Amino acid sequence: MQVLIDAFYLVLYKPLFNALILLYRFLPGNDFGIAVIVLTVSIRLILYPIMVQSLRSQKKIRNIQPKLEEIKKKYKDDKEKQAQETMSLYKKEKVNPLGGCFPLLIQLPILIALYRVFWHGFEPGQMMHLYSFVPHPGEINPYFLGFLNLSKSNIILAFMAGAIQYFQSKNIMDNSLPSSSGSKDQASQISKTMGKQMMYFFPAFTVIILLRLPAAIGLYWMITALFTLIQQKIVYRSPIKDDSIKDSPIKDNPNKED
Question: CA 179, CA 70: separation in Å to the nearest integer?
Answer without folding.
Answer: 13
